[in-house]
Amino acid sequence: MIRVDELTGGYLGAEVLKGLSFEVEKGELFGVLGPNGSGKTTLLKMISGALNAHSGLIELDGRPLEDYTPKELARLMAVLPQHSDQAFPYSVKETVELGRYAHQKGWFNSWRAEDERIVHEVMEQTGILHLQEKSIVELSGGEKQRVFLAQALAQQPKILLLDEPTNHLDLSFQKELLDLLKKWTAAQGLTVVSIFHDLNLASLYCDRLLLMENGEILIVDTPAEVLKEERIKNVYQTEIKNHPHPEVAKPQLLLIPEGKNTSVKEMKIGPGVLDILDDRIVIQSPIPLRTMSSGITGAGIGWHRAFVNRMVPADYDCSDHKAEMAEYLVQLGFLPSETVGMMTAVHPETAAFELFEEDGLSIFIVVSAGTAHRNLPRNINTWLFINGRISEEAFIQSAMTASESKINVLEDLDSEDGWLDAGKQDKIQSPGVSTDSLCIAATQQGEYIPYAGTAAPLGRLISEGIYSCTKDAIIKYRRAYQSTI
Question: In whole angstroms, how far apart are CA 264 and each of 26, 65, 268, 286, 412?
Fold first, then answer.
C-alpha cells in the first residue's frame, strides 16, 4: 500500500531524512518511533504530500505520490496532525462533515443520505455524537482530537496518517481510539501509519514498528524485535526494563527512576522481623520486597511488605476463600494488596525458621509442615527471603531449587521410616497429594545475583536451608501430632 525508497529531504536545504526505505502493507497498523528530532513528523509530511522530498520515491497504492491530484489524494488518504487548529467556530458536526468534501461532485451541494450516514457513524464511533451541536472552540483538547479523527475517518480513506493520535486523550479514550483503529484495519483493510511517543501503546497495537534515530531507520520489525531493552536504552538514553505484558504477547517498557533505592538503608530480613502467634506467623518488612508467590493473596509476581501464614480449622470451608482471607487481613490491619497471605491447618509453634549466611550471601527461611488430621493432605508452606538483588531468572531458579530440596526431604524421611506412606492412617499422605504454597521474596538491594540454580552459590545455600528447615518442621510437627494420639 505504501512504498518508500531512498527517501531524502528536509527543510531549507537541510537533510532531515537520509535514504529511508520501507514498505507498509494494506490493513497494517504501522508505528513510527524515535526520540524528538529523529524525523518522524517530517516523514509523515512527505508521505502525505505536504512536504516535498529532495530525492527518493513514495508510492501509494502502486502509484507515485506526485501522480495524484489533490482530490484524488484526499479520497485515498486522510491525515490527522499532532496539532489541529480550527479557524472558524463550526459546530462539531459541521467540522466532521468537512471530511466528506473529497467525495462531493460538481460545484453545487451534492450532500447525500450516504454522507449523512457516514458522518453519524464516525461521530458515534469516536464518542462525540452528543457534542455534535457544540462549537468546536468550546471543546477540550481531547474532545477536539476526537472530532478531527472523526473528520479524517469520514473521508473513508484507504490510508490514515496519524501524528500522536492519543495526544490529549485520557486513558479510556486512548484505548477506545486504538481499539477502533485496529478494528478498522482488520475489517476494512484500512492502512494506518502512526507516530507514537508512548512505546507501550505502540507495542500493544502495532503490527510492525519503524524505529528512527537522527533521520535514519535503525530497524523495521515486530514490536518484540524493535523494543529490545539495550536498543531502546541506547536510542532514548534512559534506563528502562523490558517486561512482558501479563495478558498480551507484547513487550512493555518500564522506566527506572534514578536512585530508586538510595533513600532506603540496606536491610536484612531475619528472625528479628518474625512473629509467631497463636493463629498465625507474620513477617512485616520495612520496605516492599519483590515477590513470586502461590499465596491466596499476593499470588504471582509483585511487591509486598507483609507475609501472613494463617492457621485455619481442619474443617475450614469457604466458597470464596480469597475474599474471606482478604477480610481477615483487613481486620488485622494488613492491606491485602501489600500482603502475601497463606493458609495452613498446622499450628504455628511447629514451624521451623533459620537465617543462613555464607560467603556474603544471606537467606531467611520459614517453613510450616504437616496436616491437622490423618485424613487430610500434606501441607507445607515455605517462605524464602533472599537478602540481595536477584534476576528474574534467579527467581525462577530459586523456586525450582527450593522445590527440589523439599522433595529430597520427603523422600529421605519416607525411606527412613515410611512416615510418608499413604497406607498408614496416622501418617502424612504421599507427596503427590498436597496443598503446598511457596513464596520467594527478595530485598532487591546490594550486589546483583544472576543465578540461583543448584550449581550456583545462592542455589546451594537455598538447597541446604530448605532441606534443613523443611525436615525440622516435619519432625516438630510429627512430635507434636504424635503426642496427641
Answer: 53, 59, 12, 9, 43
Best CATH choice for the domain 2-255 from the list 3.40.50.720, 3.40.50.300, 3.30.1050.10, 3.90.1150.10: 3.40.50.300
Cell of residue 412, nine digits:
529421605
- What residues does each domain of the chain span? 2-255, 271-482
Please give the CATH architecture assigned to the domain spanning 271-482: 4-Layer Sandwich (3.60)
- For the record, the C-alpha cell of 406 comes out as 523439599
Please state the pTM of the whole predicted model: 0.81
Q: How confident is the model at residue 168 (pLDDT cuts 50, 70, 90)?
A: confident
Q: How far is CA 118 from the centre of its chain?
A: 36
pLDDT tens sequence across 420-455: 444 344 444 434 345 799 999 999 999 899 999 999
Q: Across the chain, what does the average pLDDT equal? A: 89
Q: What angle do CA 201, 202, 203 make, to 5 degrees?
A: 90
For residue 170, give every residue at least 6 positions away whose Cβ sits within 8 Å of its Cβ, in sequence order, or none.
142
Phi, psi (deg, nearest 5) at residue 459? -60, -40
| Sheet architecture: strand order including 216-221 | 77-80, 159-163, 191-195, 29-33, 208-213, 216-221
